[in-house]
Write a structure and sequence with these properties.
The protein has 178 residues and is mostly helical. The protein contains 8 helices and no strands. It has helices spanning 3-12, 17-44, 61-78, 82-91, 93-108, 115-122, 126-135, 140-164. The longest helix is centred in the first third of the chain and has 28 residues, at 17-44. It starts with a helix and ends in a 14-residue tail after the last helix.
Length: 178
């Protein structure tokens, strides 16, 4: 059900870099103000939905994941020229929309703990979108540098997350140096 309105967004809303930044910053502001807004929301929604608007995010781990997603995209964009960034936003509306929604829900996650679950719905598309973004870089050397930077940062963060957050021992292996 969540993705039904997203289909409309893909085809009817053109997200520009400026609009993307405004949406993400706006969602962060709403996330910070959410503890004050939630009583108003729960007053007008059915009581069966109250549980979704309760609880604030005391742990910052999910916010770090959101910042990492944004940083990866920002790194790729910094390696692009202006015309390449414009082309990325105009030709990859699905990827841009998914990234912006991911970052917006992480922004809401500042004050609403369950928003990270919504962000997790949009995050996996980064696996498709980041290579598409890197493909937009026309210069071979800049493309290689950007790809190496994104891959290196992703690898380091992956290793750090395995050390910090192997929830329930779900990773069935140890690193070779352990």
């Amino acid at each position: 059900l969540v993705f039904i309105p997203v289909y409309w967004l893909f085809h009817n809303v053109k997200i520009t870099p400026k609009l993307a930044v405004l949406l993400v910053l706006g969602s962060c502001v709403v996330g910070v103000l959410f503890p004050f807004i939630s009583p108003l929301i729960t007053a007008i929604t059915p009581s069966s939905l109250d549980k979704y608007f309760q609880g604030s995010n005391e742990e910052l781990g999910s916010l770090v994941v959101g910042m990492f997603n944004g940083a990866l995209f920002f790194m790729a964009c910094m390696m692009m020229q202006r015309r390449e960034r414009r082309r990325l936003f105009s030709e990859n509306s699905i990827g841009v929309t998914m990234l912006v929604l991911n970052l917006c829900f992480f922004g809401l996650n500042i004050g609403l703990a369950d928003a990270s679950r919504m962000a997790a719905l949009f995050g996996p598309y980064l696996i498709v979108f980041l290579p598409q973004a890197l493909k937009m870089i026309e210069s071979r050397s800049r493309k290689l540098d950007a790809t190496a930077a994104v891959a290196t940062v992703s690898g380091v963060v992956y290793i750090l997350r395995m050390f910090v957050n192997n929830i329930g021992g779900t990773m069935p292996y140890l690193f070779f140096w352990q």
